[in-house]
Each structure stands twice: as structure tokens, then as C-alpha cells.
Amino acid sequence: MAMSGTDPSRMREMNQLSVLWALRGTPPSTVTELSGRTGLSRPAADVLVQQLVTDGWAEVEEPGASSTVGRPARRYRFRATAGHVLGIDIGVHKILVMLCDLEGNLVQSLRRPADPQAGPDARLASVDQTIDDVLHKAGMAPADIWAVTIGVTGPVDENGRTIVSTPLPGWREADPIAHLRPRFTCPIRVENDCKLAAVAERWKGVAQDADDIVYLLAGLRTGAGLIIDGTLRRGHGGVAGEIGALKAVRWLNAPAHLSACPGVPSGAKPGDAAAWVFQAAREGDSAAKTAVQRYIRDLAVGVAALVLTLDPQIVVYGGGFSRSADLVLDPLRRELAKHCLRVPELRASTLSDESVALGALRLALDQVDTTLLGSRLAAPTAPQFS
Amino acid sequence: MAMSGTDPSRMREMNQLSVLWALRGTPPSTVTELSGRTGLSRPAADVLVQQLVTDGWAEVEEPGASSTVGRPARRYRFRATAGHVLGIDIGVHKILVMLCDLEGNLVQSLRRPADPQAGPDARLASVDQTIDDVLHKAGMAPADIWAVTIGVTGPVDENGRTIVSTPLPGWREADPIAHLRPRFTCPIRVENDCKLAAVAERWKGVAQDADDIVYLLAGLRTGAGLIIDGTLRRGHGGVAGEIGALKAVRWLNAPAHLSACPGVPSGAKPGDAAAWVFQAAREGDSAAKTAVQRYIRDLAVGVAALVLTLDPQIVVYGGGFSRSADLVLDPLRRELAKHCLRVPELRASTLSDESVALGALRLALDQVDTTLLGSRLAAPTAPQFS
DNA sequence: GGACTTAGTAAACTACGTAGCAATATCTAG
DNA sequence: CTAGATATTGCTACGTAGTTTACTAAGTCC
């Protein structure tokens, strides 16, 4: 709560930021609209937005055919293409790189299959290649990128290194930030995939209306991401949400109920096996129904621990298994009712497997917002370092 | 992140607030010091602080014998006695009312024993009496009170009513805010005792340096209060931290290990029994040592669930049993190491059983800060309503 | 008495708000 | 179909508020 004194030039800076924020996320606006949205007078909004245009933050749209009475108004819009950010999902089976502008409009997206056995060097080389392709197709250079966020499985420390365990072979030796640092001058951040998916769900998914969210990444591995008071929570050491590590919470075994179900086609990959069980349960196979029930019962204990701890508004069921949410949501809700004092709303994710990369984009955009548009308005160029 | 436009008069208001915040929590300051602390020029700080004096927010201290070279400076100080707040702990066995000024200096404190069997009406009548006594001894009227916060056991909803269960007989029927509303015009708030104790620990206890805290109220009942990113978290429905409700977390049974210990003097009250067991364990009694060990083992599961979920910086061991922290902390740390990915710092509370009332004071002060000293500077009088 | 610090005051600068006027379009009446 | 009324934008001039800078006066210690 430490406040600091203000002088006229700072006031102007704040008002300029105010106009900039009023410009963002809206259709091209007239000066009068900006004046109304910021609470500033029309002349003030006018000079401020013109300054934004000369600075490169905004663009003018000369009046065309007007639809209403009165002189047609010149319109201004946020120059979202002044900068771009990258969101990267480094998964076991795929690498996904997304590129969007400052308003979050997707510009380019590229997916490459990855060898599950590949070591960190090979995997990072593949990431490099995918980034190159995306930048090339978008006609951009690394210097045009203002922020990069990378999602990986497993807990991540503040330096972007994976700490405990991860299904990516040898990944604990990898240092993705050091690897990318020579190519990018902008901030680079690495974050856990569950946490990024949670962020994506609040940005473009089913949790846009909530500030307290527990996100479940349900698949062959189970994980969680927490958003509290609208902010992604990493915890003091970056391992918030890792309730699955508790022995009483059998998240490691929960998906095993599915692959152990009798009747699964022999030789099926674990992911396919789970899909088969869900489908069989949907068609009435009693063994499959039992397996799903056991899976949900084990899953519910961990969810209940998260819910009892945080009392969130929504629990989002995401990840690979969210395709089978129709089978899971109602029984899970019933299980939660047994454990919890107050059962939160339960929703199924509608984002596909792009959620991690989407969340990475959002975090990169947040980085830009705080660095360039936070309390000081900087020039519209790539910020340096991290 | 919605910013709003500013004009010169608002700028002055902000600067006045800035000076006020620079004045608080420091010894009486000269204008030059204020100027340095706020970043404002000396003349600006001068007129602003003089305005604060005429408004009643600050007091002048005419220069006495100066200790340094140069003309002795007039000093200004925050008028902490402009308003006061009440912090009330309604417990099973006691009622504690504390009164402090706007800087948190304790003015008056009064404790009354309470009948554990007393119903809500009798208990609230006793609260009324204690409030009256405190106000009388301090020479104040209810109108001098700017905020009231009450702590009770059990989960509390946003209207101050106890939701689920509570050891206070019949308390679910009680409506403390409605009861006190006729006497006070200021905001009244009711909060769970664990949450308040957590706040107290960060204010005056062992967790002043941390922003992510799990507070453990360990006694005959076990509870938790969470502070995340420096803010007390209630959860969406006010039941955050109630991990003890999970069946896999046997917090309800954990203290029973102590009272069930063989050798406990028959007829001892549960609290005395626990104290006896701790003392016996300290003296080497093996049965007592086993009982303590079992207690800690059960306690640790719930703590681990909280820690794995939130990854806090510190866990504070508070409540009635914190007197025996010497026996608990090390074994608890070892248990946590078995469960957790990262073991946070474990500290024993040093606040006595005043922690709930202290936390209530702090929350009431926070209320005053946001209402009167938040974004607008109001006149120094009691705020209205809640 | 000199050095150092604070207190108080006047002038200059900056930024916003209001008022007013010209420009540009649509609507309506004859 | 044309001309006036109406409405909205674009722009400039002026007044107000607040801060900074600069300067003078005042008080204490060495």
C-alpha cells in the first residue's frame, strides 16, 4: 500500500495509459467514446490518442460512410500488430508453437509430432525448428517477438528448470531458457502445463467468469493448476497444486484403473485403452463402467483436497480425458458432494489440446502488459531481458 | 487493469494520500523527510501535510530542543487517535474484546470467561457487556469506533453467519452482525478464528516476512487459515482451508490420540489431558510419546495436503497446542518431508491466545484503510454501514 | 560570525477542463 | 429537389489547479 507522489507529467502518462487501455479489446473507437470510457474531456482524449498514434501504439482510421447523423468521426484502434508473442507447448508426443499479436489474435500456429523417447537436445532442436518455421511463415524475425512462454510437464522452478520428475526423458538436465536466450532478447518464461491450461481456460475457455478456479488436467497423468483471485498461483517454490504427490490421494493409480479394465484390446496404447474403456462404458459394458467408477473415485479424493483447501468457484475438468466428460462430470460431482463442505461448479473444458499453448500465449501477453503497459508507458519495441 | 482518467484535483487527492501513508507507522516526521519519502517537492509536501492537519488526520509537534545542526524542524505525526477499532474473539470458554487506535496501538483489552454451554443469546449478551466495559474504561462511545471484526469458531459466510458446524451451542441460529448493527454505524465483519489467527501471525507474529502462509490452529479442534500473496483467502464460499473435513485427513481424530493415551488422570478435561500427555512425553513416558507421535502423524496428512496444494513459504503451528511445539515441530517436519515435494519452513506461534482478537483488530484496520484511505481520502470520521 | 538546515513565498511550467466556433454529415419541410 | 435545422466532430483559446524551481528569511550549533 505504499503510494508515491505524482506530478503533472506522471498524470499525463497515466492518462495516456488510461486511453490505451480503453482502446484495447474494443472495435475502433471515436474520440468521444474514448472520452466517455476514460472519464477525460474530449480535447484531452484527443491529444492523448494522437500522441499514441505518433508513438506507434495506435492507428487512425479515416471516416468512411457514416451510418448516423452528424459529422462522421475519425476512429482510432490499438495497433495490435506492433508486437507479437510466442506460446510454446513442449509435450511428450508433440510440439506446438503459436504466435499471436498484442490483442491475442492468432497469427500463426504449427504442430510437429515429437518422439516420446527423444532426449532434451533433440527435443529442443525440434522446438527450434518449429519456431523457425512459424516465424518464417509469419514473415517475422526473433526481434519482433516481445515475450516467449513455454509449457512443459512437471513442476518448474523460477529459472525454468524442471525440478522433480517428468515424463520427458532426461528433461531435468534441460535448460530451455538458456537454450533460447541467444536467439531472443525478450523475456522467456517456462511454466508447468497444468498451470498454463488453467490460464487458458480463464482466457478463452469455460472459466472466463471466475476468479477462483481449480483446473484439472486429467489424462494418463493427472495434474492441477490453480487460479486464485484471478492470478495464477505458483506457490513459493513453484509446486502449488501438486496434490497428486500425497499418498492418500491416489492420482498416480487412478488412470491405471482404466488400462487395467478387462476387455481392453491387447497391445493398445494407454491413451487408446482409456478411450476404449470410456466408449465401452458409454455403451453399457459393466466392467468398463466399474473401471470408470473406480477412476472417478480415486480422482475425487484429490479434487476434494483441492476444493476443501481453496473453496473455488469452479472446477474445470480438462486434459485428454475431458472428451469423456459426459461420463465423468456427474459421478465426480456426486463423489465431491460426499467429501466437500460446499461443492463448486463443475465444468468440462472445451479447449482442445491447444490449451497449454494458449495459456502460454496469455502469460506472455501478461508479461508484455506489465512491462510495457503497466505503470509506465514505454516505447512500442521489444522489451529486453527477462 | 481498467485504468481511469485523472485530473489535477484527483492528483492532489492522491498526493495527500501519499503523504498520509508516508506519515503512518513512522516517528513524527519533518516536511523534508516526508518530501523524500513521497517523492514530492518540499513545498508540495508542506501544503499537503498542513491540509491534513486542518482536516484532522495529522498533528503538529512544535520543535523543541533540537539535537542536530540547523533550524529545528517542525514535526508532523499521524493522528492515530482519530479513530479506533474493535477486535472481538467469541470463544467457547472466553470472550476477548480488544480496542486499538488507527496505528494498531492497543488501548484497552478485556477478557471474560464464558460458559461453554451458553446459548447464542447469553453469549451475545456477554459480548455486549464486555464491549460496554471496554468502551467505558477507554472513555469512548460506540460512535468513536470505525470498524468491528468478530472471530468465531467454524466456517462463516459473507453475512457473518456460521454455516456448517461449530462447538458454540446453537450458534448457527446466531446473527452477530444483526445483533450489533443497532449499536454501531460502522462496518461489522465476522470471520473464522483460524483465518484471523493467521492474519495476526503475519501482523505481529512469526510470519511477518512471508506472503504465502499456512496457519495451523492446533488444539482440541484443528483448523487452518490461509494467506496467499499477502491476502487472507476466504474462498468463494468462505470455507477455504477446511481440509479437516476430508475423511482421508483425520483431523477430527488426531487430538483423540492424546486424550486416549493410557495414564491420563481420570476426570481431566480434554485440554488438561492433552497438556498432561505432552508433559509426560517430554519426561520420557513411552505411551505418551506414542500418543504424540500418532497425533502428529494424523495431523501431518492434512498439513501435507495444504502444503502440496499451496506450496507456502511458511507453516505456522499455532493454537493451544503450540505451547508444546518443542515436541511437535521436528517430528512434524519429518512427516511432512515424507509427503511433500518441498517442505516449507515450520515455525511455532509465539502469540498467546490473543491471536484471534489480534487478527480481528488487523482486519478491522484493513477495513478502515480501504474505506477511508484507499483511493479517496475521506474525512476522519466513522465510516457508515458495512 | 559562518555553516547548515528549515520555513515560507513568488514566479514559471505543465496538464486538464470548459467554452466556443467552424466543418461535415443527415434529416425534414416545402 | 433544395434549403434550413440538427447533430456530431475537430480544433483553438482561455481559465484553473497543482507542482517545481528559485529565492529569501529564520533559527541553531561550532
Automatic annotation (TrEMBL), chains A, B:
Domain of life: Bacteria
Record keywords: Kinase, Transferase
GO molecular function: DNA binding; kinase activity
Pfam family, one: ROK
Domain HTH marR-type positions: 15-63
An annotated GO BP: regulation of DNA-templated transcription
Stated family: Belongs to the ROK (NagC/XylR) family.
Name this protein carries in UniProt: Putative NBD/HSP70 family sugar kinase
Lineage summary: Bacteria, Bacillati, Actinomycetota, Actinomycetes, Pseudonocardiales
